[in-house]
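Morning - F0G inputs below, output right after.
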Amino acid sequence: MHPSATSEKDSEPGLPQATFRFRCIGCGSVTHSAAQNFRCSQCGNLLEITDSSWNSRNPTALKTLWRERRSLSAPLDLSGVWRFRELLPVPQSEQHVVTLREGNTPLYDLPQASRSTGVERLYAKHQGMNPTGSFKDTGMTVAATFARQAGYRWVACASTGNTSASMSAYAARGGMRSLVLVPEGKISWSKLSQALDYGALTCQLRTDFDGCLRLLQELVLRAPVYQLNSINPFRLEGQKTLALELLEQLDWQPPDHIIVPGGNLGNSSAIGKALVEMLDLGLISHLPKLSVIQAEGANSLVRTLREAGGQRLVSVQAETRATAIRIGNPASWEKAVKVLDATGGACEQVSELEIAQAKAEIGAEGIGCEPASAVTLAGLKKLLRQGFVKPEESVVLILTGNLLKDPDFTMEFHRGDLFHGTMYERESAKLNPFRHPPVVLDATLDAVIKTLDQAEESGPTHSNV
Ligand code: F0G
């Protein structure tokens, strides 16, 4: 039942020859197939995919090829993931590919945040513009493809919401069934509703994300389900394309900094892997610093680095309203530590109030994102204060999820209820200038005109200043 790692035979014209193997990130040993838990049979560390042919490719020819594909209309070329297939594991047949035209996400400038932070070259790569509204889709297209190729009937994940939404969509497209394990009451309704609509068997477990993931690890050893959490190395290969596409959008000039939220730490690992591979291949001349930002209440990586020098995981009991990153025992922490080392990035934490303010500020740019994504702007402000980021440097924030992913958070924030009854209640008054609560009025012209006049008199909101 394990996906085959070699696909030299049966390769179709148009698909590059795949020679990938699985390499342990701990002891470095290389194998042809991954166990169900994607861990090294010798040292127990996580596996990653490696391909001996990647380094022998011509970087200039690749750049031209990838750019040309943007004007083509074959299914693989329309995908912002498979467009970069020379640096991905490819399936035996194009027929196995499960795609929803993921990737190809916009890189926005952030004029208001640029002004308020003083960082002139500040950009947001909005992965919330993917088909199911989060960055998970770029990894899921690859992992679902290999699950389908291997003939799995069931795929499964533990999730704080976005993985489950994405996995169930790709499973549905690929003709597979999906099993979702989510913490009861701790994921947003909109993410949960996606899984339901895409036909997942959705189990709300009375535990947190970490409890769901633990249970899944046991389940995959007992039941014929294929695990699509981010420890699945195929997921990370797909998520690499975020960095490839970003660098292409920047004409292959690396920014000084890339800032990404940290939860289970798959995404930072994938972006870091892509950056290192791009450097090895000569696609870029130097590495950007990749920094990871966590919520204060879910700061396992921050503590792992500060208290254990990155040598052992410091788990935490996670608590944050940014529910997507409410994770206390991140599976890919070792990969993330390596990436921070390789790129010279920082790891920081931000408070609930800082997250809420940053989310409102990104919303005021006309873009919006979910709370977990907003840690990037909050983290940037902190890294600027610390002098780690300099205003004259270029910075890309990775916005991981769409604004519509967590409407409860947004509504509670604007109504002024978000911190009601919490230790932040008093301090949260300073966020009032960022709130735009709805106004309930009688349905008369007078009432609306009066409200309009009052709004005009009270001056522009902070966002228009
Ligand atoms: N941002 C969003 C919107 C997320 O959904 C997640 C993770 C992250 C950031 C953190 O990324 O785990 O790769 O470090 N969500 C997972 C899920 C865990 O189940 O949807 P990470």
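Note: The pocket of F0G is lined by residues 134, 159-163, 230, 261-268, 324-325, 370, 372-373, 400-401 (CB under 6 Å).

O.
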